[in-house]
Amino acid sequence: MWTPSSGGSSENKVPVVAAFLREASGRILLSRRPPGKARAGLWEFPGGKVKPGESPAEALRRELREELGLEASVGQELARLIHVYPDLTIELILLEAFAENYPQALEGQEWGWFRPEEIEKVPLAPADRRLWQLLYKNSL
Ligand SMILES: Nc1nc2c([nH]c(=O)n2[C@@H]2O[C@H](COP(=O)(O)OP(=O)(O)OP(=O)(O)O)[C@@H](O)[C@H]2O)c(=O)[nH]1
């Protein structure tokens, strides 16, 4: 598990949980930030903010159900980092997830399965680009 910090202020950081979810052929699930939201149009691992009183795993199961209609079990933590955006500072926690059904875009967002080499070329949210580099370097 890797826990680097991007350096800026990490006070009042918002915990954000995200899923590393692979289908049978090894492609990875990404979803796209919808128009009108911060980082609109960029791709990210599906997930969202951890609410007070929730564990990261509970938050991830809730987000996957709400956004993609997925029933999922959650495995180990793969990576974690702090990222400072102009509008907020997040602590992004990437958890391995295993889905029991197929995703459907319940909030109208785009999503897709990507092979690792395709992810190199996808416009990822900046925090996710860093996370991906960590994962790749450690050949997950
Ligand atoms: N879900 C998710 N958010 C990420 C990732 N990477 C990343 O920088 N973020 C940022 O973390 C924040 C998560 O907010 P969100 O909007 O997804 O979460 P939410 O639905 O629970 O909150 P909201 O109701 O305030 O929109 C956003 O600013 C988003 O850009 C990621 O891989 N997954």
TrEMBL record:
**InterPro entries, alphabetically?**
MutT-like, MutY_C, Nudix_hydrolase, NUDIX_hydrolase-like_dom_sf, NUDIX_hydrolase_CS, NUDIX_hydrolase_dom
Give all residue intervals belonging to the Nudix hydrolase domain: 11-137
**Any keyword Hydrolase?**
yes
What is the reaction catalyzed? 8-oxo-dGTP + H2O = 8-oxo-dGMP + diphosphate + H(+); 8-oxo-GTP + H2O = 8-oxo-GMP + diphosphate + H(+)
Sorted alphabetically, the Gene Ontology BP terms of this entry are: DNA repair; DNA replication
**Which Pfam families does the UniProt record give?**
NUDIX_4
Q: Report the cofactors.
A: Mg(2+)
An MF annotation (GO) of this entry: 8-oxo-7,8-dihydroguanosine triphosphate pyrophosphatase activity
Q: Transmembrane: present as a keyword of the record?
A: no
Q: Which UniProt keywords apply?
A: DNA damage, DNA repair, DNA replication, Hydrolase, Magnesium, Metal-binding, Mutator protein
What EC number(s) are associated with this protein in UniProt?
A: 3.6.1.55
Q: Would you identify the family this protein belongs to, as annotated?
A: Belongs to the Nudix hydrolase family.
- What is the protein named? 8-oxo-dGTP diphosphatase
Q: Which organism is it from?
A: Thermosulfurimonas marina
